[in-house]
């Protein structure tokens, strides 16, 4: 251990075969950037609360505003950001617009993160 209590290698050795193998299997830089943007969206309290709510049920902007105690215009702004990052989608029914999670992957991410948080709290 170094003076900062971080565990570090005591020998400078790079396993080139392993590094090359992992490099082939991880996302390219463009996709890592896209993933980073997704996690930035998830890091905001209000946006995360919206996603958790939408993991439970499809909701309109007014429902989400009431649930989060945030103004309709602020929720609309957050939903626009989430939609731009492909985390939510919407459907129109007459004059109503209903939001839901974009797909099952987003549902899994949100629910697994919530599960992880609950388990670590015990």
Q: Kindly report the oligomeric state of this protein.
A: single chain
At the first level of CATH, the class is Mainly Alpha
| DSSP E strands, number | 3
> What are the low-pLDDT stretches, counting only 5+ consecutive residues below 50?
none
Largest sheet, spatial ordering of strands: 1-3-2
| Average pLDDT, all residues | 92
State the distance separating the first and last CA atoms. 30 Å
Structural class category: mainly alpha
Number of domains: 1
Rounded to an integer in angstroms, the radius of gyration calculated over CA atoms is 20 Å
Tell me the fraction of residues in β-strands, as a range.
5-15%
CATH topology: Arc Repressor Mutant, subunit A
CATH-assigned homologous superfamily: Winged helix-like DNA-binding domain superfamily/Winged helix DNA-binding domain
CATH architectural group: Orthogonal Bundle
Compute the number of helices.
6
Helical content class:
55-70%
Shape: elongated
List the secondary-structure elements in sequence, H or E. HHHEHHEEH
Biggest sheet, in brief?
3 strands, antiparallel
Present the secondary structure layout.
Elements: H1 16-25, H2 29-42, H3 45-56, E1 59-60, H4 61-68, H5 72-84, E2 88-93, E3 96-101, H6 104-121
Antiparallel strand pairs: 1-3, 2-3
Outline of the structure:
By secondary structure, the protein is mainly alpha-helical. The protein is 61% helix and 11% strand. The chain is built from six helices and three strands.
